[in-house]
Amino acid sequence: MIAIVLFGKPGAGKGTQAEFLKEKYNLTHISTGDVFRFNLKNDTDLGKQARIYMDNGELVPDEITINMLKAEVEKNMDKAGFLFDGFPRTIAQAEALDTFLNSINLQVTATIGLEANDDVLVARILERGKTSGRPDDQDEAKIRTRYEEYNEKTAPLIDFYKKQNKYYPIDGIGSIPEITERLSSVIDKL
């Protein structure tokens, strides 16, 4: 069983590529955003806990997020592995993910980084914003603020995973099939 973290800035194509990879490799795609929406919509205990923080404009604590992800992993143990998208976003989350995976005799197999120039990604997101309906996809200043937060909090994960020899950067610019092929060439060697 493998556990892959798909890594990259907003607009890098993680969600798009995850759709192809989950089918090709029989992986469970675990998108943090989707997991949150499911728990909130279905008013689960974890969703109720998360809502308290969200309603107060606060970040949901890592413990609640990890517990949501644990539930997703535990109900999908029949797959060949997991593809994490949008998690971890901080060193603390990466350490919590490692602790959880170790408890079920798994570990992060690889972190694959979709790398691309900020200007290219901003253009992608602004284009996506024309149909996504997300206000934060339609405002360049907000997009660039998301990148600042990414650089501050998430980019340190690159070194975290490099030290474990688990970071694989790939060029995130090109056609969707070209990028899928680059990702597959890394996964096929794991």
Estimate nothing, just give the exact number of structural domains.
1
Output the number of helix runs. 9
Element-level helix/strand string: EHEHHHEHEHHHEH
Q: Using DSSP, what is the number of strands?
A: 5
Overall shape = globular
Largest sheet: 5 strands, parallel
CATH superfamily: P-loop containing nucleotide triphosphate hydrolases
Q: Return residue spans where pLDDT drops below 50 for at least 5 consecutive residues.
A: none
* Distance separating the two termini: 11 Å
* Name of the CATH class: Alpha Beta
What order do the strands of the largest sheet run in, or round the barrel if closed? 2-3-1-4-5
Main location: cytoplasm
Pathway: Purine metabolism; AMP biosynthesis via salvage pathway; AMP from ADP: step 1/1
Keywords: ATP-binding, Cytoplasm, Kinase, Nucleotide biosynthesis, Nucleotide-binding, Transferase
EC number: 2.7.4.3
Overview of this protein structure:
The protein has one domain (2-181): Rossmann fold, CATH 3.40.50.300. It has helices spanning 14-25, 32-41, 45-55, 62-74, 91-103, 118-132, 140-154, 156-162, 176-187, and strands at 2-7, 27-31, 81-85, 110-115, 167-171. The N and C termini lie close together (11 Å). It is 57% helix and 14% strand. It is an alpha/beta fold and 190 residues long. The protein has nine helices and five strands, in the order βαβαααβαβαααβα. It has a five-stranded parallel β-sheet, with helices on both faces. One of its GO terms (molecular function) is AMP kinase activity. ATP binds at residues 11-16, 128, 174. It is an enzyme of class 2 (transferase). Catalyzes the reversible transfer of the terminal phosphate group between ATP and AMP. Plays an important role in cellular energy homeostasis and in adenine nucleotide metabolism. Residues 31-60 are annotated as: NMP.
